[in-house]
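Supplementary notes (optional reading)

For those who missed the lab, this is the record we used. Protein: D-2-hydroxyacid dehydrogenase. Length: 318 residues.
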Amino acid sequence: MKVLANDGISKSGIKALEKGGFEVITTKVAQEQVANYINTHDVKVILVRSATKVRKDIIDACPGLKIIGRGGVGMDNIDVAYAREKGLHVINTPASSSESVAELVFAHLFTGVRFLHDANRNMPLEGDTNFDGLKKAYANGIELRGKTLGIIGFGRIGQAVAKMALGLGMKVIAADKYVNEAVIRVDFYNGQFINVEIVTESLEDIFKHSDFITLHVPAQDGYVIDKEEFQLMKENVGIVNCARGGVINEVALIEALDEGKVLFAGLDVFEKEPTPEIQILMHPKISLTPHIGAATEEAQDRIGTELAEQIISLLKNN
């Protein structure tokens, strides 16, 4: 049986699938050619990340397809309900990338509080001629320890962020309409651990009391953070979005940054991907990454092997 990993798959994933008797194709097929390729090559499983879309047209055109797999959490590039109606298995790997996304959140937080994003732009240009000026410009950094981190969306990734925040000595508050409370287990290298119970609060409380806010929600119909929400926030709040583009109103974010309400923003995702607005890309108070939350070797290994296990279980053991 053939598996088309159209957006790539880790070597460990390929190995596990081949061991299970599958042929893995890693050719990158253009979106408009996907259905034709699946039918021509008798592909039974298509694996995607965020680039390839598996919509109704592909599902209808490919009667031999049995499984659609998404390497990662969000499945907004797949018509999930329709595929399942048609008898296809739709699988994803919700647990595999949590740690990687959480670490990127803190990469943006550390970058923001110490102005690394701006210093890294300006040091090559002025480091030799204006060293003291730059030193003065970046001299008022702040510590994360002791500050309050507000987490919007308290699923697996939100809870992974909470663990890291607690380990740093931050206070954690969270909002989630589906999660009332969670016990966060913070593990240490020597086998010791602590459990911390966190009861979720209202979104309004998160906006009012957080020194930093990070979002971990799926794609939404409207904005989670818009002009009104920025007005509720503390002065000099830091905002990180490593979830989905479109959950923050970017126009309102630019206004809040320019007015000094928001100290910095860290963005891994954008309203207009893959062509983010130039005002976002050029803003001196925004730390930027190109949607790489799950893009670590460890996460991709976990994603590949987890997809392989699910595919083998569905197609070989039934």
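If you only remember one thing from this example: The longest helix spans residues 297-315.
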